[in-house]
Amino acid sequence: MYSFKELRRAAREPAGPGARKIALLGNCATQFLAVAVRGYASLEKIPVTVFDADYDQIEAQVLGEDSELYRFGPDSVVLWLATEKLYEEFLDMAPDARAGFAQGVMDRLEALWDALGCRCGAKILQCNFTEIPDRVLGNYSAKTPGTFTYQIRKLNFLLQEGMAERENVFPVDLLALETELGRESFYDAPLYYSARMTVSTAALPYVAKAVCDVEAALTGRIKKCVVVDLDNTLWGGVIGDDGMDNIEIGELGRGRVFSDLQRWLRQLRQNGVLLAVCSKNDEETAKRPFESHPEMVLRLDDIAVFVANWEDKAGNIRLIQQTLNIGMDSIVFLDDNPFERELVRKLIPEIQVPELPEDPALVLSFLQGENYFETAGRLGVSGDRTKLYQAEFQRVKLQASYRSVDEYLESLEMVGTARPFEPAKFSRIAELSMRSNQFNLRTVRYTQADIRQIREDPGCLTLQLELRDRFGDHGLVGVVVGRETGPGELFVESWFMSCRVLKRGMEEFTVNKLMEAARGRGFKRVVGEYIPTPKNAMVRDIYKSMGFSPIGENRYAMEVDRYLEKKTFIKECAE
Amino acid sequence: MDRKEIMAKVNEIARDVFDNNAVTLTDATTAADVEEWDSLTHLLFTNEIEDEFGITFTLSEVTKSKNVGELVDAISRHLGGN
Fold first, then answer.
1. For the stretch A205-236, what's the b/e string if a residue is b when 16 or more beta carbons lie within 10 angstroms of its beta carbon?
2. In chain B, what residues touch A32 (CB-CB under 8 Å)?
3. Which residues pair with residue A468 across a beta bridge?
4. Which residues contact A159 (CB under 8 A, 6 or more apart)?
5. In chain A, which residue's Cα lies nearest the Cα of B57?
6. What is chain A's Cα-based Rg?
7. What does the pLDDT read at residue A381?
């Protein structure tokens, strides 16, 4: 972790273009945190500008009509009610009122969330509450509602339930940091009493990281895949030398260390992260433990792509990346061998290659500490995603046996639907907006709350596109958001699609459905725009290829009446 | 480490924290004498001194030191000097 000094130096660098605006509101001094966030973001190349409100101005800033906060126009507002300050408030309450403390703070927070939600579209980054071991009744405090110990725990519980109800509130888990670092190093009493700072300078970089991690996830910088080595990474020992009976997994030797790592990886998979194997082994030997070792937690079903050969790992990782069609920067590579790590880092600078602790016993808590898998929403179809990629291999095999692409596409027996956004799909739509980088015309990121708002806006036209074929259901793979921008004119604010279904005719199907919906709503003209990013060159000319005429730099238009329906092998779902 | 060495190091830290190479601190210097020395940079300054010398100031040392000389005395005390 960076030191506070390093962050302070880096904080002097001006933020790059397109910076996210973060406002810090606290009941304690936030200047150091502002410095730390600026510095951490700068070192991690996340462009941000930070507005740091005066001490204890939360209500004034949030409830004031024309406060500095709203003039700043934040993308995110960090709300930080420090426990130390709450502790004072708690102790100043009449003893018989203390049992209602947690609910009181929660009501205050909900009022702030409501006001922020009404007055600006900023995301709320809500810090949860660290603990103070008050021990007024010793251990007995933990079952006595009138104590601080009881109330602060209750407050954290109410908070997580409250946040779960709100799509625009994202937790900053300070309690996890305090637990990890220990209160001794998290809190610095002289600093608190001299400066009203509730976090030590040693712990501030961790808090800054937590805030920046959430920001990064909100802008779609998320990890989608873990590529793992096998020997001495996923189990102890070398399968090719030691054999099935002697690798350490489960009860044997250090086996439980590896079992727990596998359990955690499986949980990632169950939450939508893809797992891939990249190992120097014979494929058959490498697969055997997954097929028949009784104590293996991970099975072949859990692995989206399994690559075991004697080629170099960088090449194999490229193969995995191309098969999954995801960005290199969304992959984490785990390998116990420093040589392999260095080689992969050198050849693929974008990939994340953690410097794993030498002792396997420390690997799991190390990975948990690094927080690679921050997300801005629950991953929807998650569990099925691995199956989707496995099905993809069957399609690839089938494709090879057909003479023409058309013949192949026809054989897939594809069925598509295009409907306005449905509430049950809001989270998947938001997720897809965060995850799609390549097939994404304007790269606008949406949260569930944004999607709900768009759906309710009568000036918007929305389409969710779903696809299935003879090998399985792809689910919701495409999204279009159109906005009325003038009489009879529909502007396509967003069009993004999962890269899993590229070149199947979904592009044509989508535009056919978009024009049909636009006509149905009485629009005369549809305008599309392409905003270039380092990743979306593949859709640069898509409007042109659909017959739209250029009307400016990267802008295209199509008269609804002149549109000729494009050929596609996707049949409409008969419902 | 003698007082002179401590003072030299403190000056080095001050130039970095106050982001001004022209800053020169003496025993008699107070916050009012340095333009960049405000409540925030004061905290950064004392914090950086703590890190650099591997010491921890008491609350009174942070809040009550009247000038640089008193701060240097405190550092010297923590380092086990006179």
1. bbbbbbbbbbbbbbbbbbbbbbbbbbbbbbbb
2. 40, 43-44
3. A415, A473
4. A106, A109, A126, A128, A129
5. A190
6. 26
7. 46
The per-residue pLDDT of chain A, averaged, comes to 92
Q: What's the pLDDT score for residue A379?
A: 53
The reply to whether ipTM tops 0.95 is: no
What is the CATH class of A225-370? alpha beta
Residue A410 near residue A569, CB atoms below 8 Å: yes
State which amino acid sits at residue A159: L
- Quote the CA–CA distance of A299 and A54 in Å, as a whole number: 54
Beta strands in A240-350 (DSSP E): 274-280, 303-309, 331-334
Contacts of residue A107, defined as CB under 8 A and 6 or more positions apart, other chains included, come to none
Nearest CA distance, A57 vs chain B (angstrom): 18
What are the structure tokens assigned to A112, written together?
Answer: 């702030």
Domain B3-78 in CATH 1.10.1200.10: yes
The domain segmentation of chain A, as residue ranges, is 4-218, 225-370, 403-572
The amino acid at residue A243 is: G
Residue whose structure tokens are 């995995």: A320
- For residues A347 and A139, give the distance between their C-alpha atoms in angstroms, rounded to a whole number: 55
Chain B residues with CB-CB distance to A190 below 8 A: 56-59, 62
Contact between residue B43 and residue A197 where contact means Cβ atoms under 8 Å apart: yes
Among residues A198, A75, A55, the alpha carbon closest in space to that of A130 is found at A198
The four Cα atoms A444, A450, A456, A462 give a dihedral, to 10 degrees, of 30
Residue A380 has pLDDT above 70, yes or no: no
Residue A467 pairs in a beta bridge with A416, A475
Angle in degrees, CA B62, B63, B65, rounded to 5: 75
Rounded CA-CA distance B60/B46 in Å is 12
Contact criterion met (CB < 8 Å) for A194 and B59: yes
CATH 3.40.630.30 fits A403-572, yes or no: yes
Write the pLDDT tens digit of every residue in A433-461.
998 888 999 999 999 999 999 999 999 99
**A330: which DSSP letter?**
G
Sheet with A415-419, strands from edge to edge, namely: A549-552, A555-559, A525-529, A489-497, A472-486, A460-469, A415-419, A571-572
Pairing between β-strand A555-559 and β-strand A549-552 as defined by DSSP bridges:
antiparallel
CB of A195 within 8 A of CB of A204?
no
The set of residues, in sequence order, having a beta carbon less than 8 Å from that of A512 and lying 6+ positions away, is: A565, A566, A568
Rounded CA separation A322/A166 (Å):
36
Instruction: Enter the tokens of residue A459.
Output: 């000036």
**Nearest residue in chain B measured CA to CA from A193:** B59
With an 8 Å Cβ cutoff, are B47 and A201 in contact? yes
Domain ranges of chain B: 3-78
CATH code for the part of the protein at A4-218: 3.40.50.1110
d(CA A295, CA A504): 41
Nearest chain A CA: its distance from B3 CA (Å): 24
| Euclidean distance between CA atoms A327 and A322, whole angstroms | 9
Residue A442, phi then psi, degrees to nearest 5: -125, 0
Mean pLDDT value across residues A327-355: 95
A351: DSSP letter: S
**Is A167 or A15 the better-scoring residue by pLDDT?**
A167
What's the number of CA atoms in the CB half-sphere (13 Å) around residue A20?
27
DSSP letter for A142, please: G
